[in-house]
Amino acid sequence: MGSATVKLAKLLVSIAAPVVITFICYGFLRVNAATVAMFYLLAVLLIAASWGLFESSVASVAAILCFNFFFLAPVMTFTIADPQNWIALFAFLATAIIGSQLSSYARKQTQAAYASKQETEQLYSLSRAILLLDEHTSTAGQIAGNVMQLFGFKSAVVFDRFSGQFHSGGKEPSAELAAELKESASKGIVAKDDVARRIVAPIRLGAEPIGSLAIEGLLLSDGAQQALLNLIAIALERERQRDETTRVRVERRSERLKSALLDAIAHEFKTPLTSIKAAAGSLLSTSVLTSAKNRLEPARELVNVIDQEADRLNALVSDTIQTARIESGVLHPKRRECRTDELLSRALRELEARRDGRSFQVNLAADLPPFSADPDLIGLTLRLLFDNAIKYSPPASTIAISGARQQEQIMIRVHNEGSGIAPDEQERIFEKFYRGPTNENHIPGAGMGLSVAREILHAHGGEIQVESEPGEGVTFTLMLPAENPAREREDAAHTRS
């Protein structure tokens, strides 16, 4: 039955009720006018409580006409002879209208309280359903289905702005509705259609919309609607945080596995390298190569190559082990007294075979003090920076190394004459596995060196910076705390005493 038919039926009943009362009271009961007025008033109040003010007002008018025509003298006319009857008629009219208004208001308040209670229960049920969502299924899709089921909507569609996907509790949204959802999510617009009983509203987390919701079938109160949108926003954000946590956990597990594998492989390399080194050392010291010098000179040169390359491989494996420990988070510097010139000399000796015509120009300040650090880790940092300078500078160029003390820090600068680094890449070069787009195809490397160097310096309380202009070369600056190991020992002894 349509709404127009229902309204017409209510209107007819509102008119018929006073007519029926009149027929019974006038034709059978023969009661007085006061009793009839009470029956009329009771009917008006019942209609107001059941249907509303309009229907009760129509019933009041019908009751007044019947009351006047059949019960107020002269009867069977709409005239009133006695002035007191006018007073009675107006009193009845006022009582009927005021009573119907109060009854209608009470009815509306009851309906609003019931609707509010029902919405609260539905929101509570939805919050419980959100807590029990299946983590292996789309959160937005489950929410759309729960919203549609719990609230009794004809349809419910959730649009996730970040993934760009629509999640429907029923049929898929039309192209028009999809466009409205996207507009609502991007501009924060609320679209309401009272005829279709449909609303499209943005889902906000803070001030920024993260999606939108379209519901059809009934309209919620403003408070319930906002509470529903907040619950959906919390659920979507919780899913995003869960996915982010899972991704970070997987990445960490992958990093630990990779580091453990790298560490294991590096240790496996140590065994054959030790054998090669021992055999080369024995050959170099044996009398076989010292006799018949001219005849065996090529063999001595080959053994020397084996010995040098074994040293180089041994250093690379040691660096790999240190890198694996850094990547796994197991980095505990074993500090002792270090001197800048000794660390630089050792690092340059280990890279001697890789210079390829490049020269190193070293300029150290005379007042550089000894400092407390792990010499193996700082040595690895220097080799990584020197190796980087060699790879990214042209052959026969000069790599300038300088060292000075500034306040409480030791500054070591390494400058190469390469092509330079663009400003937008200067921060990214310290990211793991990052390699510049202009160099990744023709310069060997994994993009780990600068990242490892920064981690080592951070573990020592230091820092690394880069300065570069395209075509002007690159300068890396290492900063280490100029801590005096002798003073540290004195302070520690003083603390113990």
Describe this structure in words.
- There is one protein chain.
- With 497 residues, the chain is α+β, with helices and mostly antiparallel strands.
- The chain has 4 domains: 3-116, no CATH class; 119-245, 2-Layer Sandwich (Beta-Lactamase); 255-327; 336-489, Histidine kinase-like ATPase, C-terminal domain (Heat Shock Protein 90, 2-Layer Sandwich), CATH 3.30.565.
- The protein is 58% helix and 15% strand.
- It has helices at 3-29, 33-50, 53-71, 83-131, 139-151, 175-187, 222-285, 293-327, 340-350, 375-391, 449-459, 485-496, and strands at 155-160, 165-168, 191-193, 198-205, 208-216, 336-338, 359-364, 371-373, 398-406, 409-416, 463-468, 474-481.
- The strands form 3 sheets. The chain has a 5-stranded antiparallel β-sheet with strand order 2-1-5-4-3, with helices on both faces.
- Strand 11 (463-468) and strand 12 (474-481) form a beta hairpin.
- Helix 2 (33-50) packs antiparallel against helix 3 (53-71) and helix 4 (83-131) packs parallel to helix 7 (222-285).
- It is rod-shaped and about 150 Å long.
- Residues 487-497 have low confidence and may be disordered.
Please supply descriptive tags for the structure shown above.
single chain, 497 residues, alpha+beta, Beta-Lactamase, five-stranded antiparallel sheet, five-stranded mixed sheet, 58% helix, rod-shaped
Instruction: Give the name of the CATH superfamily of the largest domain.
Output: Histidine kinase-like ATPase, C-terminal domain
Strand count, sense and closure of the main sheet? 5 strands, antiparallel
CATH domain class of the largest domain: Alpha Beta
How many helices? The count is 12
CATH structural architecture of the largest domain: 2-Layer Sandwich
Kindly state the number of beta strands: 12
Q: Give the tally of structural domains.
A: 4
